[in-house]
Write a structure and sequence with these properties.
- By secondary structure, the chain is an alpha+beta fold.
- The chain has two domains: 42 residues; 153 residues, no CATH class.
- Helix content is 53%, strand content 19%.
- It contains seven helices and eight strands.
- The strands form two sheets. A six-stranded mixed beta sheet has the order 1-2-3-6-7-8.
- β6 and β7 form a beta hairpin.
- α6 packs across α7.
- The longest helix has 48 residues.
- The protein is elongated.
């Protein structure tokens, strides 16, 4: 009797265990670890981290460049403001003459009278060139500064003529050749050449305008303001 009860109790216990376990769980295969998904998410996170770091490096580099530019501009501005009006005018004139000589070289002109050879007389010649292509003599007028102005706005009057015109260039030559003139020998020789070129209709005048920022030269604009031949005036930037 006891053996029969023990056997019955075992059967009942086994049935209870089976009923509490899902049927599918007995045959469900073991799932592989989700390593690929984890690796994908890790890669995306790493990529986002690298992209954010690259953007931060670019921002830091830009800030450093802007800071260096501000320091440079502030120093240049401070040095320019220290100059008195006469010093500013002289520096602007030097910038104009340097810009003129650079542009003349780029245009292939030959020098007949350099700024260093001029006596700096009022309404005199800043420089004189010769165009090897046309054999014309060119009276060069240098203008430095005058930021924002047109070339016409930089020109004054002299000897009863508008500066930069053929009439002004010829009147200046006559003034230089006067016996009481303080012009040097080189200027007198060039003035005679200018009058000869005028008679031969081989004379023209060009203005070289160089703007600057706190004493640092910018581009030079070249304009033919006086001519004898039937040519349209030209405006170039060099």
């Amino acid at each position: 009797m006891r053996k029969w009860l023990q056997r019955l109790f075992g059967i009942v216990a086994m049935g209870t265990l089976l009923s509490s376990t899902p049927i599918n769980a007995q045959h469900e295969p073991t799932r592989p670890p989700r390593r690929l998904e984890t690796e994908r998410r890790s890669s995306e996170s790493y990529g986002r981290h690298e992209t954010a770091r690259e953007r931060e490096i670019v921002r830091e580099t830009t800030r450093e460049q802007e800071q260096r530019t501000r320091v440079t501009e502030t120093r240049a501005e401070r040095e320019w403001r220290r100059l008195d009006p006469v010093e500013k005018r002289h520096q602007a004139e030097a910038i104009g003459e340097a810009g003129m000589m650079k542009a003349a070289r780029q245009l292939g002109y030959e020098s007949a009278l350099k700024p260093s050879e001029s006596s700096k007389r009022p309404q005199g010649y800043d420089a004189v060139f010769r165009d090897p292509k046309t054999r014309e003599l060119i009276v060069g007028e240098a203008k430095g500064g005058y930021n924002g102005r047109s070339i016409e706005g930089t020109l004054g009057n002299g000897y009863g003529h508008r500066q930069g015109t053929i009439g002004w260039a010829v009147a200046a030559a006559h003034e230089i050749l006067r016996p009481e003139s303080t012009a040097n020998r080189k200027e007198r020789a060039v003035a005679a050449d200018i009058l000869r070129a005028y008679e031969e209709k081989q004379l023209r005048v060009e203005v070289f305008h160089t703007e600057h920022r706190w004493g640092e030269p910018l581009e030079t604009e070249v304009a033919r303001t006086g001519k004898q031949r039937n040519e349209s005036s030209r405006h170039e930037r060099k």
